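tool=predict chain=A
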Amino acid sequence: MTGPHPAPAHRLSRRGDALGTENAFVVLAEVNELSRAGRDIVSFCIGQPDFPTPGNVQDAAIAAIRAGRHGYTPSAGIDELRRAAARDLAARRGIDVDPADVVVAGGAKPFIAYAIASVTDHGAGDEVIYPVPGFPIYESQIVANGAVPVPIFLREARDFAFDPAELEAKLSDKTRLLILNSPQNPTGGILDAEALDAIAAILAEHPQVWVYADEIYSRLVYDGAFASLASRPGMQERTLVVDGASKTWAMTGWRLGWAANRALAPTLTRWMTNTESCASQISQWAALAAIEGPQDAVTLMHTRFRERRDLIVRLLNDVPGITCKSPGGAFYAWPNVTEACRIAGAADSEAFRKALLHEAGVAVLADTHFGRRVPGEGQHIRLSYAASTQAIEEGVRRIAAFVRR
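tool=predict ok
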């Protein structure tokens, strides 16, 4: 008599097995678990505005529901929103954008995968240059789509810009895409006009390279003016400009983003048809109201974030072993904690992060959550200052007490 048949050896694809994650959500789950167990945690781990979505935007969504706007829309989005997004993208970048060039998706994030899949071939050795430290989904999707990830390092001495000479050295005949993010997650750094001019000049010698301009924090610039590579001569045609509603109007959970490029729009639309069908119609009408309605809430959030930036930078620089540059945009601080790790007996930033969470009750992210550690740059952590003044003061007080202890 034979025994039971062994269970079939189900396995994941190499792509599925290698797929990365976004550690902000992993740490958030850990924070929630600790909170449910009764721990008092001050959290700086998640990057989303802590303000309510503006009232006029909420009202527009309710009106859309009441009007029966519940069905599918064209995959590229409703015409009204594409027109509004085109006007908004154009006005803040000094470029011309036709509504037909705009595609709407369920957040800005899907365009990372769509863009990489549209301009690289799986397993062909096509290279994508991306910023490190950077949004972790860049590298995850490069690998998942069978392209070759080529990191370009953001330097603290350059206020977290990269050296244009390093970009020039990393470009090759295999390069298909350059990912730029300004203002940046996780450093809060910005690419100023001089840096963008240098990048444009270098790319002029490499016409085969597309650019993915992740500009989701475009309205959250505190030092100087926002600038886009797309406004440089010859760059708009090869740049996918990506923006959205989540950070500007506190609409992260509404899942609404848009991207613009004339040549890529038809392919991006087909990706939408193949994956999401379309973005939520209700969220699209809400985003239309966000763009076209009063911007008082946007101005208020900008003011509050600037105040919080100044506060958290000042407080962090008073902590033994921590130095923190003032970020030019977004809502992240990226302090250097090399000496604080030594004082606290932490092997590295990840050990420091874990100790802060479990011993001090403060949730932050480590630099290794945003790619490989930059050679020669020491240890860093990320704090999102999309938190109340009271939370910032208490959280940094706990960090200081932990280090001193």
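Residues 14-52+297-404 form a domain with the Aspartate Aminotransferase, domain 1 fold (CATH 3.90.1150.10). The radius of gyration is 22 Å.
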